[in-house]
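WP5 quarterly update. Target: Monooxygenase. Source organism: Oceanicoccus sagamiensis. Length: 388 aa.
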Amino acid sequence: MKFTLFHLMPYGAVDLDAIKDHETVWVGLPNKHYDRDAGHALYQRYLNELIQGESLGFDGIAVNEHHSTAYGMMPSPIVTASYLAARTEQVNIAILGSAIPLRDHPLTLAEEHAMIDTISKGRLITGFVRGIGAEYHTWGTNPTFSHERFHEAHDLIIKAWTETEPFRWIGKHYRHEYVNVWPRPYQQPHPRVWIPSQGSAETIEWAAHPDRKYTYLQTFSPIKSVYKYLQQYRDTCESYGYEASNDQLGWAVPIYVAETDEQARREAKQHFENFRNRFLKMPIEMLLPPGYTSLSSMKNIAKSKAQIAGDITLELACDMGMFFCGSPETVRDQLADAWKDLRFEHLLSMLQFGTLPAELTQKSMQLFANEVMPSLREIVDETQAAIA
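Structure tokens (predicted):
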């Protein structure tokens, strides 16, 4: 098992009482609620937490992209990843991901990802996403063309990375007389690609295709849904005539570790529930605007989301396996049990969430890295050796 430290960089300084009348912190929350000094302090803190991931032994550190929201202060993961590339030496840097359909000129992303990959000497993991529905409200992009623009932008970027002669691109959404990316990526033929998703059937089928075999990441879901979608990915690979490797599967989940189970739940409760019920909350029409996904996928995702509609307590989230919270022994055992069922290679652990303060984040990161990760690696290695 490989561990990636994932961060959302939430604006945890927001006055939740002052914004209680707003239905969501996405799209329409006035930015008068943002304080520049608090923002500066949070950026410094969060960047240091990610950099610390290298010395703590994580295999990767990961950032992502969201717009017009207190949920995450990374409208440009390129900026964040560039800073991390200059401040680390060995750890992989994952952008999970760049929302390529939102761009009218995706070649800028091809250039920027290639720059980061070269500066970091091949440590970049590229992630491509369509962006959640809220981003389409923010950018004014028609969600009906989301899949089309995603596929065409992806094809253009991959070709730009792998062709060594200038070429012309005349597509439905993008047209370029000259495509000739300088620099080329350090990794050849191109950086590794991971695809985060909420379970779209179209995304699973596309990522699993033999032409791509991209690593599929299920994000922030009850464990029953994680099992369903990772199995769907495996089944899709099988329908294509090959067996998915564990390296093609990943899971992103929030985690909190303290000295005891009782202490962990007491310390994390308010901050997790702020994350889940205030920062993540948005109306379904904002999450899945008309045309954003197919009717069948819409039904499946809506069905999964129905399980977690409304406010969710920490206790319920733990029961549903969408949050792991407890002593090092409890978290280790629960994750080991999950791995035996899911057989994923990549665990993306989000150890800061919502309003969780620096001192609690530090403690949880230390306990997870020192007392959970080594044991989990041993358990997985021993189990795989026994199977072999």
